[in-house]
Design a protein that fits this description.
Length: 365
């Protein structure tokens, strides 16, 4: 039986363990955290990500946890509403989920077949023509025919394989965390010059907040940037130590594999949260990796090269779209805020909604 070592127990790592396990691989998942981590911000699955979830057999469990339709209200800085966008823009092959729910479904699907080692990291990587040998932080070693680095945008596996210098940072920061919300299902969004705040309320245990802002100087806190927004005061108060807080960046690598070691997900190609396709690309990447490995048999390097050649155009497209779309999330001035409002208002017009929906469907193919 072929063996694979997977670094990272997030979406990319779990999806890889699921696909390879179903193909007959024996998988070991290494995770530096002492246990499973879960965060509650919103993700969307459509296009290749939805297709991959279907092929991996995840749709029934994911559909049971899907958030469904909800209205979105844009507000002014003083909390007064500008306008409300009704639900129904996306097509049928689309799921809105909390990230933690997707990770839970993946973990439940793979926990019986994969071996998990938490609080464990790789210290050294050695390769031969037939395998990979890694030394771990607890002094033990693992050997396998394949090493998959799925340990996120700040990947230690990537640094060990290729060195540093592949993160492209942008002058923005983002914070996302679960919150306690009211019972009604609705989203509230404020978009102003240099900053955006949003909260999605779907009940006390199914709500999340998202903040992003332009930051070029000393790092500012969420409170200092958004504290004047009365509608978000209690939300900011609920920000706990487990909040996701990071600088917005992409990962741009000339190649994603080296011998029998490969990077997948944000470790290889982080498209940024602005792209909205990170989870979908992780699922699609894992599914296609399994397909390539099955097709090429024992020639792992050839499989990795073919996999990258097939997936890289989609990743490059998403990264470009994210760079162009950053002004929508963090408009630089009031004119861009006004333009954003104009485009979002178009969603309230049935004819415009139909055109935008068709455009999104073409974009997500």
């Amino acid at each position: 039986m072929k063996r694979a070592i997977i670094v990272g127990a997030g979406i990319a790592g779990l999806a890889t363990a699921l696909r390879l396990g179903r193909d007959g691989w024996r998988t070991t998942v290494l995770e530096r955290a002492p246990g499973r981590r879960s965060s509650g911000y919103l993700i969307n699955l459509n296009g290749p990500g939805y297709d991959a979830a279907e092929r991996l057999g995840l749709l029934p469990a994911l559909a049971a946890r899907a958030l469904g339709d909800f209205t979105t209200t844009l507000i002014r800085a003083d909390g007064r509403p500008k306008f409300t966008v009704p639900p129904g823009l996306v097509g049928d092959r689309f799921l809105a989920l909390f990230r933690g729910d997707l990770e839970t479904v993946l973990h439940e699907a793979v926990r019986e077949s994969a071996r998990f080692r938490f609080a464990t990291t790789i210290t050294t990587i050695e390769q031969t023509p037939t395998g990979v040998r890694v030394k771990l932080s607890d002094g033990t070693t693992e050997e396998a025919e394949l090493l998959v680095g799925a340990d996120g945008v700040h990947s230690a596996t990537r640094a060990a394989l290729f060195g540093d210098g592949f993160e492209v940072e942008f002058p923005y920061r983002v914070a996302a965390f679960p919150i306690t919300g009211p019972a009604e299902s609705a989203a509230t969004t404020f978009i102003g010059p240099g900053r955006t705040a949003a909260k999605l309320n779907l009940g006390p245990d199914r709500s999340s907040a998202f903040f992003t802002w332009r930051s070029e100087g000393p790092e500012a806190s969420v409170r200092s940037v958004f504290g004047d927004l009365e509608a978000f005061g209690a939300t900011i108060d609920g920000m706990g130590p487990d909040a996701y807080l990071d600088r917005v960046s992409q990962v741009v690598l000339p190649r994603w594999s080296d011998g029998r070691a490969v990077l997948l997900g944000d470790a290889a190609w982080c498209v940024t949260l602005f792209a909205g396709h990170g989870a979908g690309l992780a699922l699609a990447g894992a599914d296609r990796l399994g397909e390539a490995l099955s097709r090429h048999g024992d020639d792992v390097p050839a499989a990795l090269a073919a996999w990258e050649a097939g997936l890289r155009p989609a990743v490059t497209k998403r990264q470009a779209l994210a760079r162009r779309g950053m002004r929508q999330y963090v408009p630089p001035n009031r004119f861009h805020v006004w333009m954003n409002d104009l485009m979002i208002r178009a969603l309230t017009v049935p004819a415009a909604r139909a055109l935008i929906r068709r455009g999104l469907e073409r974009q997500n193919r």
